Amino acid sequence: MATTVWRTTPELILALDTRFGEPVDAYVNGSQVWLRDDGPGGAALEWRLHPVAGYARPTGMGTYDVFSRVALAVAEGTLPPTPPEKLWDGLECFAAYEDEVEPAVLATFAYAALGIAPDAAGLVDHEPIGLAWEQSGRTTSIVSAVLEQLAGPRTPPS
Q1: Which of 69, 85, 101, 103 is 20 to 30 A off residue 123, Cα-Cα?
Q2: HSE on the CB side for 49, CA within 13 Å?
């Protein structure tokens, strides 16, 4: 499946908040999700902010409050309750509902929607990534696994 990925930065959180607003869904595992018609021909894209390995929700916040409170602090230039990079590894964007989109086309549309160029784009197989994450008890990084797949096989030095 074609995907684009960004590592978490305060600028990424600010762009998500400014351009997309509140997530349409938030999960107890830390994921934040937006579904938007940003793709080619108005195709639906899923934007998923992936939690860090071993994510723990900050004390005193509900599942649906984490993004808005962190984004507000970033926007105001104040100290967030928890730094964004301690909560989320990065953002991934892919075609929702298993629609087919070429990686370069997806990257172009994602960049236009978010206003920040992705760190990487290409084809990934989400099944082994999700399986490894579940089997580890959610202690592996989904974003690192995606980036590793996008980097391709590495040839050992000779």
Answers
A1: 85
A2: 30
Find, among 10, 36, 34, 26, the residue nearest to 66 by Cα. 26
Q: How many CB atoms lie within 10 A of CB 3?
A: 25
Token pair recorded at residue 116: 């920040």
Q: Rounded distance, CA 81 to CA 102, Å?
A: 38
pLDDT, tens only, 24-69: 999 999 999 999 999 999 999 999 999 999 999 999 999 999 999 9
**Alpha helices (H) along 40-141:** 66-76, 84-87, 103-114, 126-135
Tally the residues of the chain.
Answer: 158
Q: What is the pTM of this model?
A: 0.91
